[in-house]
Amino acid sequence: MPLGQWTQEYCCGCLETWSEGLSRRGFIKVGLSGLIGMLFADWLVQQPLQAQGAAKKAKSVILLWMNGGPSQLDTFDPKPNSVNGGIFKPIKTRVPEVQFTELLPQLAEHADKLAVIRSMVSRETNHQRAQYFLHTGYLPQGTVEHPSFGAIIAKELGDEHFDLPHFVSVRGPSFGAGFLGATYNPLVVTNLSQPVENLLPPQYVTPDRLERRLFLLRYLEGKFADWTKDENQQRHLVAYNKALRLMRSPLTKAFNIAEEPESVKQAYGDNDFGRGCLLARRLVEAGVRFVEVYLDGWDTHQDNFTRTQKLCSVLDPAFATLLKELQERELLDSTLVVWMGEFGRTPRINQNEGRDHWARGFSVVLAGGGIKGGQVIGATNEDGTDVVHRPVAVPDLFATLCHLLGIDPNKRYYTPNGRPITIVDKGQVVTELLG
């Protein structure tokens, strides 16, 4: 066999003999893939060699991503006096003169913590392009893949000595690190009813067998390092060490939402989004910097009202309980919570009782992390068709988030071909949002 007799151990668990005659290619193959099958295959090769610190106000971000684009008129910007308003009635909130729709009764009780931007404007109504825009702050460009905000936070605020990944995506095809490289890609959690895959070795790999594998891996990596100072090889070494630290770290219990009392799990909701919000709280509490929780189904071209009502029955308790728990655990001041989708929905109701794509005035909701709660920023007109006060552009939102996190929005990154790109594209901080 080209890799020598060491494969007998790999297959049956007995490290008896192995050949000194491995080729250079054999060293690479053994050293870099020996553990791939049982460790974090998608994530472990993505870990940073270095992370940069920065002065910060908020320490972490939880992004509640409403995939498809939620209707602002049926959630946070009701229009009861317009034919465009739809069937849902407005209700009072904890903040005088601020109303939500009746679909959000629990969030209404937390309105004093929320800053609702009702005047977001964008130029994109195509799903993929708008999702890219609202994740990166940049419009898509064919020659450049920009990093998502989660990747930027992982790079700017992440600690290389921290055992957990600093960017976690829950149940969604999250945008990644772009030209920053796979180092800053997210760990994606897909099944919230089961433990995170590969936190433990397979049952047939005993602790003793694992240690023998690691011994062999270190030996082979050392041999290969004598031949080359290849950067990719160094990346793999760091990645394996990080993955092993994660497997052995007590912090991995943050992923185990089964530890929570049944009353807490029920408060969030017996559904994937509720469980995702609970996981986000646990991860932030453990020190993770950025968690994105994904709720799909908001592209309501047909049957908007039935579908939005169902989605809000999931959203309302989960979002409200997340705010409640963050406050009770004294985490809200250091955790920036962002609720948004790629755009809003048309004020006009179409012939299928649906609402179509709309970017000329939609809502984004912020809480915690230095945000001044209990207020509304901007306004749309009575029909919801135009922004009439304080338009907020997407780069302005990103500049504000950077300010709250102590990140310089004008800091330059460089693409692989040397092109300089700032973190934020000419945005201005929305000072009214600052607490």
Explain what the structure shows.
The chain has two domains: 60-195 and 256-433, Alkaline Phosphatase, subunit A, CATH 3.40.720.10; 199-251. The protein is globular, with a radius of gyration of 24 Å. The strands form five sheets. Strands 1, 4, 5, 6, 7, 8, 11, 12 and 15 form a nine-stranded mixed β-sheet that branches. A two-stranded antiparallel ribbon has the order 2-3. 31% of the residues lie in helices and 16% in strands. α2 crosses α6. The chain is of the alpha/beta class and 435 residues long. The longest helix is centred in the C-terminal third of the chain and has 25 residues, at 304-328. β16 and β17 (420-422) form a beta hairpin. It comes from Candidatus Fervidibacter japonicus.
Summarize this structure briefly.
The protein has helices spanning 7-12, 24-33, 105-108, 127-136, 149-157, 207-227, 231-248, 262-268, 272-286, 304-328, 394-405; strands at residues 60-67, 90-92, 99-101, 114-121, 167-170, 187-189, 290-296, 335-340, 344-345, 357-358, 362-367, 375-377, 379-380, 387-389, 392-393, 412-414, 420-422. The protein has 435 residues and is of the alpha/beta class.
Q: C-alpha Rg, in Å?
A: 24 Å
CATH class category of the largest domain: Alpha Beta
How many E strands? 17
Shape: globular
CATH architecture of the largest domain: 3-Layer(aba) Sandwich
For the record, what is the CATH homologous superfamily label of the largest domain? Alkaline Phosphatase, subunit A
The poorly predicted ranges are 1-56
The helix/strand series, from N terminus to C terminus, equals HHEEEHEHHEEHHHHEHEEEEEEEEHEE
Q: Oligomeric form of this entry?
A: single chain
Might you state the CATH topology name of the largest domain? Alkaline Phosphatase, subunit A
Share in helix: 25-40%
The share of residues in extended strands comes to 15-25%
N-to-C span: 66 Å
Summed up, the helix count is: 11
Q: Kindly name the structural category.
A: alpha/beta
Taking the sheet with the most strands, its summary is: 9 strands, mixed
Mean pLDDT: 85
Whole-number total of structural domains: 2
Pfam families: DUF1501
InterPro entries: Alkaline_phosphatase_core_sf (IPR017850), DUF1501 (IPR010869)
Protein name: DUF1501 domain-containing protein
Organism: Candidatus Fervidibacter japonicus
